[in-house]
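Sharing a chain and its predicted structure for anyone who wants a worked example. Both blocks are below, sequence first, tokens second.
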Amino acid sequence: MLHDPNSPTTQGGSTATERLGTPIPNISTASLPERTTTSLAGAAVPQPATDHPWDEAAEGWNRHGPLVSEWLRDATRAMLDAARIGSGSRVLDIAAGAGDQTLDVARRIGTSGQLLATDISARSLALAQDKLRVAGFDGVETRVADAQALDLAGAGFDAAICRLGLMFCRAPLDALRGVRAALKPSGRFSGLVFAGPQHNPCIATLVSTARRHAGLPPASPGEPGTLLSLGQTGLLAELLETAGFVDVEVRAMAAPMRLPTCQDYIDFVRTAGLPIMAILAPLSAAAQAGAWRDMAAQLDQFTTPSAWVGPNELLLFAAARPASLAEMDYPASA
């Protein structure tokens, strides 16, 4: 998620995403005024003059960057290995967020590689751009774009990644077809999503408790665009194959989150978990505080003598764009 208002970027439109089990309102860019930026190729690219709701959580995600980096360290390494990213690779990072894994990619590809980071939140991309600049990676290109409308067909990337972003797409098949179209023949795509609610009790508790306090009915974990929407057994592989990918592999990875206390986890969600915040937003301050206390009381069951350890399970997926023209006869979107 990366946009530096003082640096050239390429930018696209934005629509809705969802996290932690509740929809984020759609933002249509069709009637908004546009401002122009410049791509790496020198072409003027229109940019809708709008913000996205996820901009509100960008600071929280960035501030908790070290926590997220440690939590997802092994999973991120496995994702980059599955995409076969190395020195000189041309890589697309989809739903890049505040740039934690983008920085990992930049280190792998070195100065001979190319990297485009996209996200629906311009504010998150700005924070990622700053992070990359401080680390000495000034050449990373960024674009504000919905993962379901990348508009990068024919770009010929060697690899694409998407860490904990694909499940937020209401139309994941559109997103996957767009990724395939952006890859070169035999190009690799890998990413991470959350497994089902039975393997992610912390997330399930957050969602169900917030909705109960807000007077909302229980949410289906399989509702498109929500945090656990791709956790159903076999669903992710089926979507990848339907989108035209081959050599599809999906495997589960345990990814427990370790923090000093349960309250540290609650503080993380309160500043970075926009959908939970959005569910509780209509409530009074006192009612919101009561909801957070209820969540903490339930999640305290994961406190150990030495730390709080919240169970999480991820699904690591990897696939490739077909090598032959005949196999690649799929629409970029349909």
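Comments welcome. The chain is about 35% helix and 20% strand.
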